[in-house]
Each structure stands twice: as C-alpha cells, then as structure tokens.
Write a structure and sequence with these properties.
five-stranded antiparallel β-sheet; 18 strands; 40% helix
Length: 467
C-alpha cells in the first residue's frame, strides 16, 4: 500500500509517494552449483521436518514435546522442566552459530536454511509446476480472467493450501502425538486448541511463503536490520566485481569487448531476474540480499555462453574487490568458533553425564512439627520422585543429618515407571535431646536398587522446638 504526504507549494498541494507500491517478483529458475546446494538443503530440511514426527522409539513418538505432561521426548532421552538449562544452552549455541556464519560468510542461514526460504522455495516449485516458467507466469497474470486462468490459479492455490495444512498438522504433531492427532482430525474429533493451531500455522505458511515471500525478508525479519553489525570488509558476501564488469553493455559474442571499451557484464539482467528479493546485485551490497547465490549461478552460465571466465558475481570480500589483502580467518571468527566448541562440549558433557533421576522435597506447611506419643518430634514431607529414564526402577530412600533420625514411609517400596512422577509421603522423627537448633538441615538420599549410579541427594529442613 502506498503512503503519501502532501506539501504546500504556491498554494497548491503536491502529492509525494513515500513508499513504492510492491511489484510482484517472478524469480527465474536457475541451475548450477549453488542451486543444487540450495535444493539439497531444502529437501533435507523438509524431509527431517515432515519425517521425524512419524518416527517411533520404544513404543512412543521419537520426538515429542508433551506440554500438558511437562515431558519432552528426544529419541531415547526424556527431558523435564528442570532440564531447562539444556534448552538455554541450545539457544545460545543457535545465536552464536548465527553470529559465526554471518561474520564468516554473510547470510548463509537466510539463503539456505531459514524456514521462510525453505518454504518459499517449495511454494515456488509448486507455482512453476502449475503455471510454468517466469515468462508464462507473467503472461498469465497479465491476461484477463477466464476459465483457463481460474483453473490454473485455483489449482495452484489448492496445492498451496493442502501443503500448508500438512505443514500445520505436522507442527502440531510435535506437541500432540501425530498418529493420535491424525486419527482425531480424520474423525472430526480433535480438540478446539489442536484444530486452531493446525489452521493457524497453515495460514501462516500460506501467507508468508505464498503471498508475502520477499516482504518477510525485507521488512518483517529483524535479522535484515542488524546483520550489518556482524559484517566487516573481510566478510565473504555475494558481490559483483565492477572492476571487471564495467562498463557494461550488450554485444555480440564474436567481438573483442575489451578493445571496444566494454567490461565482461553484457547487461542481460539475468542476475536480477533470478533474485528472489528482486534486487540488482550490481548496485553493491544491500540489506535485502539473502545470499541465496542464485545470481552467481545465473551469471556463471552467461559467462560460459560468452566464453568469459566465471566469477563476475562471486563470494568475495569488500577488501578483495578494492584490491586490498583479505583476512577471512580473523580474531572474531576464532572467538566465535572457540565459544561454539566450548558450549557444544559442555552441552554434550551435561547430557551424557545427566542422571535420569530427580527428587523434590516439599515440607508440610500446615504445621511446623508435631510431638508423637512417645515424645519425639516429627516433620512430614512430600517427596516427588521423578524417573527420567526409559526403564522402570525400584528405589530405596534414606535420610541423615540428625543423630537417631528415623524415617517412616507409608509404603516400603518406591517404584516408578519410565517418565513417571511418584508422590511419596515421608515422616522424619527425632528425639528432642538430639536437636541442637530450632531448624536443622537433613538430607534425603534416593538410590535405584538396580543401579547404584542413579543416586540423588536433596536437602531439607527439620523444625522443632527451641532447644
């Protein structure tokens, strides 16, 4: 939508357009090394996204974020809210990885792995399948509405909507068991929230990848705005070499273009036609560039046709274009790489050494303590025993911290199935003559019968009368 401003000029209003109206971009299909890498990345990422949700592990879904039960299944591991530190480290790793790759080679994430790029590429494939290549799409949009145009456009949007619904269904399938969710949707018995989120994410996919496309990258994504803080003149970016390409101009292949005062650029516009954000890379580094490298493949094919060397558009640095020495491996790259290795090692060590057992101790707050018939002081605790392992376990509970401390349980044995939380009521009794303070630290120790390595100790407080 245009935004206008009016300014007085000799008593007359002058209309000034502040924002240009969006022109639909028709990216031309391109082939080459980077197009192959991008296609491979899209297929791998989509295959993982749509396929992993259906994999099973020990009779359950392999990857499932069960929010109501507060359990997060990742293959053979079960994570709990208490394991939030691992998620925090994972997010830190993601942020540092973004900084590292951006400093090293620009917006690699945007060009090859960003969900917006991945799904937009898929929607473009569907569009080309139904409407044809770029010239056919432009002719179709310019043609009047008739039965043929309605049929083609309707088919495209139908396929887009089906694919978007499958995307939304798969996304919700990572939070609700996907096989169960599929049966519920097929039988029209899914809950309102599950149905809402399926349609919500389907609508978001359809809108972002089908309609807004480059607008998301140019205006909605904050990364396009702050990426410059991670760039320097030694960052590898997709660049046009003006020293070699200028002055540009069309020519026949047979002429000696250097003798005619022309550079290698034949001004064919292919680099603009293949760009998914519609920019002209020959104008220099621009924040709209997502480093998809489509312009490199297009320009290389033109150079091959003309018999010129490849690389008029290539990954290079600003220093290299200026004829200055380039230092791709520089201190900030090593700092990011070192931090990535350190945090990755810490995360791996934490997960590998993580004990799949947890114990929470909650002291009964209804009464500070009570005196038993035999004159001893008793405190009551509720213990939450969490079996975070994939196998059931029997546990033994013990307590220490006060001389002659006695532990009494309602049930002698404590057992928990995989992923189960057991509430256990425990009573501690101590003689008044052994209490040296009104509040004394006591320690509960929970140990698995079949594996002594699965042992956890939790501190609590034992309250009594003033000594």
């Amino acid at each position: 939508m245009d935004t206008h401003a009016t300014t007085p000029d000799n008593g007359q209003d002058v209309e000034e357009v502040l924002y240009e109206k969006r022109q639909k971009i028709y990216p031309r299909e391109v082939h080459g090394l980077f197009a192959y890498l991008r296609t491979t990345g899209v297929l791998v990422l989509l295959g993982l996204y749509y396929g992993v949700a259906w994999l099973q592990w020990d009779g359950r879904q392999a990857v499932l974020w069960d929010l109501p039960a507060r359990k997060f299944y990742v293959w053979g591991l079960i994570f709990w809210p208490q394991d939030f530190i691992y998620l925090a480290l994972l997010l830190i790793l993601a942020g540092l990885s973004l900084f590292f790759f951006t400093t090293l080679a620009g917006r690699l994430w945007c060009g090859y792995a960003c969900p917006q790029t991945v799904w937009t590429e898929t929607f473009l494939w569907i569009e080309r399948l139904v409407e044809g290549d770029r010239p056919n799409q432009m002719r179709l949009d310019r043609s009047p509405w008739d039965s043929r145009k309605v049929r083609i456009k309707g088919t495209k949007h139908f396929l887009w909507i089906v694919f978007a619904l499958w995307t939304g269904f798969t996304f919700v399938g990572y939070f609700t068991p996907i096989r169960e969710l599929g049966g519920q949707l097929f039988a029209w018995s899914a809950g309102p929230w599950a149905t809402f989120w399926v349609f919500f994410y389907a609508f978001a996919t359809y809108g972002n990848a089908g309609w807004m496309r480059e607008q998301v990258c140019k205006y909605m994504c904050p990364y396009a705005r702050f990426q410059s803080a991670m760039f320097d003149r030694d960052t590898l970016v997709v660049s046009y070499d003006p020293g070699r390409g200028e002055p540009r101009g069309s020519r026949r292949r047979s002429i000696a273009h250097r003798a005619a005062g022309l550079g290698d650029c034949i001004d064919c516009g292919m680099c603009v036609q293949v760009c998914p954000t519609g920019i002209d890379i020959r104008k220099g580094l621009q924040y709209e560039c997502i480093s998809c490298s489509a312009c490199i493949d297009a320009c290389d094919s033109v150079m091959d046709t003309m018999g010129y060397p490849r690389g008029l558009i290539r990954y290079t640095t600003q220093h290299a274009l200026e004829g200055k020495p380039t230092q791709v491996l520089r201190p900030r790259v090593f700092v990011y790489a070192g931090l990535l290795l350190l945090i990755s090692a810490g995360l791996a060590w934490g997960i590998l050494t993580r004990l799949p057992i947890a114990l929470d101790v909650i002291r009964d707050r209804n009464q500070l303590y009570r005196e038993t018939d035999d004159g001893r002081i008793e405190n009551v605790y509720t213990l939450k025993v969490m079996n975070m392992d994939t196998a059931p376990h029997e546990y033994v509970l013990s307590a220490r911290g006060i001389k002659d401390l006695a532990l009494k349980l309602e049930h002698h044995g404590i057992s928990a199935a995989p992923g189960e939380v057991r509430n256990v009521v425990a009573r501690l009794q101590a003689g008044t003559d052994t209490l040296e303070a009104r509040s004394t630290a006591v320690f509960f120790t929970l140990a698995a019968v079949d594996n002594q390595k699965l042992t956890v100790t939790e501190e609590a407080r034992f309250l009594g009368p003033n000594p």
